[in-house]
Design brief:
The chain is mainly alpha-helical and 207 residues long. The protein has a domain at 30-62 and 86-190. It is built from six helices and no strands. Helix 1 (12-27) packs across helix 6 and helix 4 runs parallel beside helix 6.
């Protein structure tokens, strides 16, 4: 008996590929609307995960009140280490948040998951640029991204030229991009499973 998932022009897998190819030709490409909702998901997850990380940090500090002064001295002595830990936490938060955003966009668009993830990331850059322009023209009080820890934003005070500013910008740009692309591809793969199930049903192949 021939396995329904073996390569061949008449196998269910090949038929699925043909159907997907035809659908992609018509409905593929970047879907900016889906990507926008993916970006909203990413921003929401960034806020929630940042708040969770902050709460955990506060909880750890509160669990040892007797050593608060000692901990403060150690923090001053190990500021560089704490900065590295904070950067790692921020990178994890951004990766998970934008993975979720990319997944949402990939699920909504069905095709070209990597492109949907790129579009989610692009929305973040577009909004950051618009907010930076608004803040430069109308005042920094309109820089709403300042309240979103880790959200991509364009620095207006020259901090980008420092080593920490450059590292922060890399984290804020590269990590979300990788997360969004991987999430978009994962969201798209769900639909390939659905497509395969439909073809299997038509051809009578057991799942």
């Amino acid at each position: 008996m021939v396995d329904g998932y073996d390569a061949g022009s008449s196998t269910p897998k090949a038929r699925r590929d043909d159907v997907v190819r035809a659908e992609k030709d018509r409905f593929g490409g970047i879907k900016w609307g889906s990507a926008f909702f993916g970006w909203l998901t990413a921003i929401g997850m960034t806020v929630l995960l940042s708040a969770l990380a902050t709460a955990i940090g506060v909880g750890v500090g509160a669990a040892n009140p007797s050593g608060a002064e000692q901990a403060a001295d150690q923090a001053r002595q190990n500021a560089e280490t704490l900065g590295i830990v904070g950067g790692i936490v921020l990178a994890v938060v951004l990766f998970v948040a934008y993975y979720c955003g990319g997944y949402v966009a990939g699920r909504m668009a069905r095709f070209d998951g990597a492109k949907q993830g790129l579009a989610v990331w692009s929305w973040g850059i577009i909004v950051a640029i618009l907010v930076a322009i608004l803040a430069a023209v109308a005042g920094n009080q309109f820089n709403i991204l300042d309240d979103l820890n880790g959200a991509p934003r364009i620095p207006l005070d020259g901090s980008l030229m420092t080593a920490s500013g450059i590292i922060g910008l890399v984290i804020a740009l590269i990590v979300p991009l990788l997360g969004a692309i991987l999430g978009g591809k994962a969201g798209m793969r769900f639909h390939r499973k659905v497509d395969q199930a439909g073809i299997d049903h038509q051809t009578g192949v057991a799942g």
